[in-house]
Amino acid sequence: MTTVEEPTGTGARQVRSLVDVQKGEISREIFIDEQIFKAELENLFPRAWLFVGHATQVPNPGDFFSSWMGADPVLLTRDNKGELNVLLNSCRHRGMRVCRYDEGNTLQFTCPYHAWSYSIDGSLVDTPGALHGVPQQKAAYGTNLEREKWGLVRAAKVHNYKGLVFANWDPEAPSFDEYVGDFHWWLDNLADAFDGTEGGTEAYRGVHKWRIRSNWKFVSENFLGDTYHGASTHASVEAVGIGPGGKGKRRHGERQNEGGFSKGRMKTSFRRGHGASDNIAYEIPYPEFAEDDLDDYFVAAWEKRKEKLQAEGRLLGGRGPATLFPNMSFAAGFPRTILVAHPISPTETEVWRWYLVDKSAPEKVRDWLRRYYMRYAGPAGMTEQDDMENWDYATESSRGVIARRYPFNYQQGLGQETASDLAGSVHSHHAIAGEVNARAFYRRWAEFVDNLSWPELTKLAQVDDRTTEHVAETTDVAGGVKVLDAVDVVDGPPAK
Amino acid sequence: MPIDEALLERMLLLESVSEFLYREADLLDERRYTEWLDMLAEDYQYSVPLRMNVAYGETDAREETRAGREILWFDEGKETMSLRVDQLNTGLHWAEEPVSRVSHLVTNIRLDAVELPEVSVSCRFLVYRNRVADETDFLVGRRKDRLRQVGDSWQVVRRELLLDQSVLLAKNLSIFV
Fold this sequence. Notes:
The structure holds two protein chains of two kinds. By secondary structure, chain A is of the alpha+beta class.
């Protein structure tokens, strides 16, 4: 494999040539190859908006939470003014990880190596994360050390979306709102309480973290719209039944049987790479609970939300599973949880899972959801256990020389995309077996990895060539009419 | 030399408890899960907290997530354990199909408290799993068990397991630890 000779990218189309969305064929090299992985680290992760953590994990000044952005360790901190900062967790002197704690509270990070210290206290430094203390500064540097230049590296952009904290290293990157586009309806359902209260959720304490021997993209793809795997992969958990209805009841809830999972449901695929296995016009019913008082809570929440959203002219669907390009996956119903697939090598990934709950949930609901999440998801979850087996051995058995000569098949629903009311997206009526989302994800992925410039990336995202109608204007489901800024129609689809 | 009756009694108790824990390990490693479930009391509670890296002085307050309110690897009772056994017995649970080779080592067994008919026991565990070919996991840590005398044997009432990993280095926990 020698196709990617210049991982920093020169506009050459090496990686895009491996992702043939017209034929629905994608090379196995993109899951295995070292050079492509290096190009991902160089060109994708430093430019994409990445999920870092939840604001409720750092409620007070000085609180911090250790996270990752791509292969770089970062600290999500709250400074003494209450603002969120995302800092590279590596000393500017010799690179030592200044903080090896997973969480805690401090306004100063002191490197153990030579004791350079960095402050997030605005009364000591102008910029949170700035270099504050240098042992023997005068003896070593005289007056030559420009401390303002040697603070912890800060993420260029940080965005708190209803408690979901994202960051981006690239000052040239589009705003979070532009990057997300109409996919925000799914994030809203994730971040809002079940009764529709905006941002009314918090993260339980405790993030599941585990290593898998898989390429990170298998993980993103699985939640992006692969509803096809459920029947086989999760046959055992479904046969046993771990759902809200009690022992023997389906894992997502009994009402899913009333056509709930597939009837009237469509996949939604965004040109920017995001994808959801449902559409916002389709509202899944709340599950049926074995215990009456739980049922009462969720019935009331569903009714209240319905009233609120309908008054705002909003549709009720959009709970996923879904993936925000490139590596944040989530489901906003049962369960309601966030996953990030951190890349370690082409064949190794660290998976993190956060679990959300309504801030106002009574103790019984909080405890029931917690137990349901733990038996469902994470490495001990009876559903998720079987996913890792697939991802790991799909990765391993694609490493061989012969295997790598044969691409994967992504032809489900090829050419059958239909128009969507949401800007920059299409639907696929294939509720279960449709791969439209994966094709769009890898197409976008290749455009990033080939290091297309932001103007090029933005231009490509503004015209969706997958339907005959170019979506240049869309009715905003919140009520008004939203017109995309300066839609510059390019000549036909980009070369693959 | 007079026989220390109290010491003798304690040694016999420890022997009985150890024998029970070794037999439990055998049943698990021989995949006799249904028989194993009978060793758990109906009110069995099992918890495996997450372990975090926290600063000196904060370990008591923060190192482990708390059962009953936060996210753990496991925090469940016998009913969910039974569902896990049912899942293994479907033959379709791909995470354990083909089945893994597992050995449970139990050591450093001590009686922490004797309050018959219940006793508190602490031990170390080492659970080795090998599956397919080179997939190999070591799960090591401390365990506290609460056992209850039932007839001439015991049942496990409560089990708290402290796994010595913060990031789980195994791809899943599809075996009983």
